[in-house]
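Just scan my protein:

. . .
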Amino acid sequence: MKVINNLFDSFFNESVIDELRTADFTLALDPPPEGKSDSGFVHSSLQGGNVNSLLSAKLNAYAELILKKIVRLNPDLRNYFPQRYVWNYYNKSSSGTYHPDSLEPDHISIVYYLNTCDGGTFIEDKFIESKEGRAVIFNSDVSHCGIGPTEHNARYVLNIVLVKDNQ
């Protein structure tokens, strides 16, 4: 697992959040943990190479900027390409459940935090605080869990899944 801080500034992150406020989020399908009413909300702007709307194309442009900067700082990711961009929204009643993003070999996950709040992500048993501009990189088969905020109103995250180009 690798953590990168201060990837983008507040203006950039707030611009992404403004776009997300118009996105069609759906309720995450995972069962919520006990004491929570939902597992958060998702908007998938890229799934297996398919883009489903004009808004998704705009969100994908932001996701690609985030990914390009991460790759520039981590050249070992140059042989990977995006398989999935999923935007997550959690409120005070949301919390995820432990899951891997993929059990396939040669897959990498990235969690990018768009805002600072008291939520975060458990990656195995390590808690990563939701701090604006922070990215966390880890193998996609590692079990992790998004945690919604308790004091703040919202937590916005981009989850990227990369697959290695083995050609």
Notes: The domain at 2-164 is CATH 2.60.120.620 (Jelly Rolls). The chain has a mean pLDDT of 92. The two ends are 25 Å apart (CA to CA).
